[in-house]
């Protein structure tokens, strides 16, 4: 995780404009195609999804939602191999050529959002199959991510960081795997699904992308003081929250199972030390 939160107003608005345009384009084409006849939609979808199984990365996962529905869910989460390699290359090169969290996150989301179509389709299938409310759907999505194994991702070498960083040393001593020399200290959303492990801001970046796509009012909150990243969701809850533009964004820990909206670990629960790293598209 990048350790400095440097706020750059220009990068913020440029990044958010780019993200807004991405979602606007997706919405435009969705509306456009909705007016066509059923046959054309079926043909378009068939052409879009005709991909050799050898060119896909697939991960089957089953998990238990103990946040709201108390039910088990399962699905196969898929990304195209070509999309994965392009996303990884972009993060390591053009995407990281910025100096703020907001710009970096905006770049990765803008590059990946359309590549997550198969993942989004699978989540939507789960929601429709189980007749989930919006509150339940958010819990199912977050519990899915909480179930994915945690791993430490750092931009430096793991061995040298073990001796120079107490945080890294503590996590490795607890048995968590360390993956070093990762630009930005995280995975992009597409990389996260392919690798199926990741650290705090890898998770919040993925969740921001997915929840925003499904029209939730969500932010990423980072803390330099705590060295951590959490989600903030503007949805009825109780517990810890951050007020942004007059709205309450309830904190959500995503690295461990069982954390409900409004719950974060006690040792990082002072909301004064949390700042917006990725704002909501609903505040732009």
Give structural notes.
Residues about 1-15, about 30-35 and about 45-50 have low confidence and may be disordered. The protein has helices at about 10-35, 40-50, 80-90, 100-110, 115-130, 135-145, 160-165, 165-175, 190-195, 200-215; strands spanning about 55-65, 70-80, 150-155, 180, 220-225, 230-235, 240-245, 245-250, 275-280. It has one domain (about 10-284). The longest helix has 26 residues, at about 10-35. The relative contact order is 0.14. It is α+β, with helices and mostly antiparallel strands. A hairpin with a 2-residue loop joins strand 7 and strand 8. It is about 45% helix and about 20% strand. The strands form 3 sheets. Strands 7-8-6-5-9 form a 5-stranded antiparallel sheet. It has a two-stranded antiparallel sheet with strand order 1-2.
Mean pLDDT: 87
Estimated structural class: alpha+beta
Task: Give the count of structural domains.
Answer: 1
Helix content: 40-55%
Q: Going across the major beta sheet, what is the strand order? A: 7-8-6-5-9
Shape: globular
Major sheet size, sense and barrel closure: 5 strands, antiparallel
Strand content: 15-25%
Number of strands: 9
**End-to-end CA span:** 25 Å
How do the SSEs run, as a string of H and E?
HHEEHHHHEHHEHHEEEEE
List the uncertain runs: 1-14, 28-35, 45-50
Radius of gyration: 19 Å
Number of DSSP helices? 10
């Amino acid at each position: 995780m990048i350790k400095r939160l440097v706020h750059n107003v220009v990068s913020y608005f440029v990044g958010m404009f780019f993200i807004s345009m991405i979602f606007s384009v997706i919405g435009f084409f969705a509306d456009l195609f909705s007016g066509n006849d059923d046959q054309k939609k079926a043909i378009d979808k068939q052409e879009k999804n005709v991909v050799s199984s050898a060119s896909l990365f697939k991960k089957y996962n089953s998990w238990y939602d103990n946040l709201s529905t108390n039910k088990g869910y399962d699905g196969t989460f898929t990304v195209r191999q070509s999309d994965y390699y392009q996303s990884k290359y972009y993060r390591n090169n053009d995407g990281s050529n910025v100096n703020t969290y907001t710009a970096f996150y905006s770049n990765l989301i803008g590059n990946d959002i359309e590549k997550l179509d198969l993942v989004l389709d699978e989540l939507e299938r789960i929601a429709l199959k189980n007749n989930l409310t919006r509150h339940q759907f958010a819990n199912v999505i977050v519990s899915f991510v909480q179930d994915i194994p945690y791993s430490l991702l750092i931009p430096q070498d793991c061995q040298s960081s073990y001796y120079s960083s107490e945080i890294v040393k503590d996590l490795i001593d607890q048995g968590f795997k360390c993956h070093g020399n990762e630009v930005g200290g995280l995975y992009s959303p597409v990389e996260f699904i392919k690798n199926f492990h990741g650290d705090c801001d890898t998770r919040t970046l993925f969740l921001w992308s997915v929840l925003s796509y499904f029209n939730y009012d969500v932010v990423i909150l980072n803390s330099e003081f705590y060295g951590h990243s959490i989600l903030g969701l503007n949805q009825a809850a109780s517990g810890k929250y951050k007020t942004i533009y007059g709205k309450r964004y309830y904190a959500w820990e995503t690295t461990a199972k069982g954390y409900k909206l409004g719950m974060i670990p006690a040792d990082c629960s002072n909301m004064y030390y949390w700042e917006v790293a990725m704002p909501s598209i609903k505040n732009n």
